[in-house]
Write a structure and sequence with these properties.
Blueprint lengths: L2 E2 L2 E2 L14 H10 L11 E6 L5 H9 L3 E7 L2 H13 L5 E5 L2 H7 L4 E6 L8 H14 E9 L11 H12 L5 H17 L7 H9 L5 H8 L9 H10 L15 H4 L5 H5 L4 H12 L2
Parallel strand pairs: 3-4, 3-6, 4-5, 6-7
Antiparallel strand pairs: 1-2
Helix pairs in contact: 4-5, 6-7, 7-9, 10-13
């Protein structure tokens, strides 16, 4: 298994499409939340941090000719796939940069209307997270939009010991990342069958669903040395250091508190005015 800065390198991250990071989704949602987003009918710039094989950027560039798109990833294997795809469909409004976030934040001289990152923040070292914040402070245009996906407490909390077991087992084996994740799933299955999680039925169900996902995805998810869910209030405070403020969730339903929060909890939520406490209560109420 090959790693760099604690992150898996010997298997490519599978192509996953995330509608939430598409420009049309982000601008429509910002308007829904009462903010004036960048105008995507005029020229604009868009950067994805940790773009993987580039599927989201390729879709965005193909459907948004007014945009200029930049993808950043430190895995050259990912970018070779992305560049080949861009050439094969003749996209000239997209480019890919091979760099870790620290080097990109230091060397970048571009400014962006959108900076997005999905499935990266919670898997990388704290120093790389700080580099993302530095990039935001320097390179996100005024009134630009940041989309930041991360693992949140309490929804991700039960998986902390599971990830620790998978990671420790992988460190003791000589196989590839995919082989190591398969060995870890086998061990978890034996533990589950033996009753290790009988008092945690929710966790047992999650474990039983893991083999349905690709081994490549699970290797990237669980075999990083920096698997760290955070509380939303803490992420908001970190982002505020870079001069950005919380607008809302990229999942529209989560912004409809009267629908997404159980009715018997509505009076409690209504009595809370501190934003950090409100967000923490909402995460607890939704177990997300």
């Amino acid at each position: 298994m090959k790693k760099e800065a604690g992150y898996v390198l010997d298997v490519a991250y599978p192509a996953h499409f995330h509608r939430e990071i598409q420009p049309v989704w982000l601008t429509a949602l910002a308007q829904f939340l009462g903010s004036a987003p960048p105008d995507i009918t005029a020229p604009y710039s868009y950067c994805e941090l940790g773009c993987g094989v580039g599927i989201n950027l390729l879709v965005a560039a193909a459907t948004n000719p007014q945009g200029q798109f930049v993808g950043v990833d430190f895995n050259e294997r990912h970018l070779a796939i992305a560049r080949d795809a861009a050439r094969s469909i003749g996209l000239d409004n997209i480019r890919f940069i091979q760099a870790d976030f620290a080097h990109f934040a230091r060397d970048n001289n571009l400014f962006f209307d959108f900076i997005v990152s999905h499935g990266v923040w919670s898997w990388i070292a704290p120093g790389q997270q700080q580099s993302i914040l530095q990039l935001l402070q320097r390179s996100l245009k005024p009134r630009g939009l940041l989309y930041l996906h991360y693992m949140c407490h309490p929804g991700a909390t039960p998986m902390l010991p599971v990830q620790k077991l998978l990671n420790e087992l992988a460190h003791q084996r000589a196989g590839s990342a995919e082989q190591n994740i398969q060995a870890g799933l086998e061990l978890l299955g034996r533990l589950d069958a033996g009753g290790a999680f009988v008092d945690q039925p929710g966790l047992s169900a999650r474990l039983q669903a893991l083999p349905e996902k690709s081994a490549a995805y699970l290797a990237h998810d669980f075999l990083t040395d920096y698997w760290r869910p955070q509380h939303s209030a803490d992420v908001h405070r970190l982002a505020a250091q870079a001069g950005v403020s919380f607008l809302g969730s990229a999942e529209p339903f989560d912004n409809l508190e009267r629908l997404s929060i159980p009715g018997n909890l509505q009076p409690i939520l209504a009595s809370i005015t501190a934003p950090a406490v409100r967000e923490t209560v909402k995460d607890l109420a939704r177990n997300q």
